Amino acid sequence: MGRRISALPDDGRPLTGFALGLRALHERAGAPSLTELARKTGYDQPRLSELFNAKKVPGQDLVRDVVQALGGDTEAWLVRLKSARHAEEEFQAASARQGDTPEARLARLEQENRRLRALTAHPDSVIAQAKAADEAAAARIDRAAALEAQARSVLSEAMDQIRHAHERLPEVERQAESLLADARAKADQYVLLGRMEHDKIVDEANDRADAIHRKAQQEAAALKQRSIEDAKLHREKAAASTDRMLTEVDLLRGEAEQAVQLARTQRLSMERRAKIEIERLVRSVQERLDAAGAVQEAQLLEILLQDFNINENQGEVKGRHARRPAEPTASASTSAELDVGIPHQNREPADADEEETGLPWGFPHAKE
After folding, report:
1. Any idea where the domains of the chain sit in the sequence?
2. Which of 72-76, 109-113, 300-304, 309-313 has the weakest average pLDDT?
């Protein structure tokens, strides 16, 4: 089942009268639903609902298509639409000027009656709308009479209320003056209480501020004294620590000087021992060379000893580094063995300390 059209009360607006006329045409056409009418005209249901409920002034195309679908006279309804649009504008202007008082309603009804009488001056529209206009005019006349009676009743009631208000005006004025006097007295009392409370709050705030200021000064003085004591303690600790560090530095410096002196002494002793050992080895090789008849090579070794500043005037060294006579060789060494040096089987093992130390062979250039 399609959507039906709800009832529309007549509020005296020209647009409402136009919508009621369309509703009468709709009833004569069999009262089709909005769904059927939308399918015939091509307009959606909300648009048709606005037309039949006088929500706003419709357009000519909408009215023409709807009237044609309902089987009415389109030209007559377009003329009626033009008149209703003009009357609606005047009605809205009058409503804006006069409001919604009974007098304004009566004025709007008179304006609608004039509009209806103006429609009778056009026979072409009156012939198509005669019955609807008569019915609408009769209904409006009845509503106008009812509104007039209601307006008279309202005016009478308003006059009675005005007279009653005039009679009560002196009493109301006396009551108002009494209320004003009481209000002034209470206001003065509240102002006085407010000032007293304000002064009390200000005094309490000042006392609290003074107490906080004194406490802050005391805490600041105590903090300052603690800071001075802490700084003094830190200075004393720093001075003691500095003295300990200086003492340790002096001790370390003395130990370092002793270590340097000891190292220098050990180096000289090791150089001396190394020279003696080299001289012993070279002499042994010379004896072997002499035994083998290699005099020239023996002389070269002597020159080598002089280049290394090694001679027989070295001081006496005790222990395993003392000079020992060269052992006689059982057989002469060949010249090839002399070129490559002393064979490993004829070398005496050196001390472990000397092997780990690894002295450089630059004795002639080392100066004390």
Report:
1. 14-168, 269-365
2. 309-313
Rounded Cα gap, residues 192 and 97, in angstroms: 51
Which of 63-67, 253-257, 353-357 is the least confident region?
A: 353-357
Q: What is the mean pLDDT of residues 195-216?
A: 86
Supply the DSSP symbol for 361. Answer: S
List, as one string, the DSSP characters of 170-225.
Answer: HHHHHHHHHHHHHHHHHHHHHHHHHHHHHHHHHHHHHHHHHHHHHHHHHHHHHHHH
Q: Contact 269/315 with Cβ under 8 angstroms?
A: no
CB 31 within 8 A of CB 17: no
- Asked if 21 and 80 count as a contact pair (C-beta separation under 8 A), the reply is yes
The secondary element (H helix, E strand) that includes residue 341 is: none
Q: pLDDT tens across 164-173, in order?
A: 888 888 888 8
Give, in words, the CATH class of 14-168: mainly alpha
**Whether the Cβ atoms of residue 128 and residue 76 lie closer than 8 Å to each other:** yes
**What does each C-alpha distance from 320 to 49, 279, 282 come to in angstroms?**
135, 15, 17
Query: Of 120-129, 211-220, 227-236, which range is least confident?
Result: 120-129
Mean pLDDT of 36-64: 92
List all residues 6 or more positions away from 118 whose beta carbon is below 8 Å from its beta carbon: 83
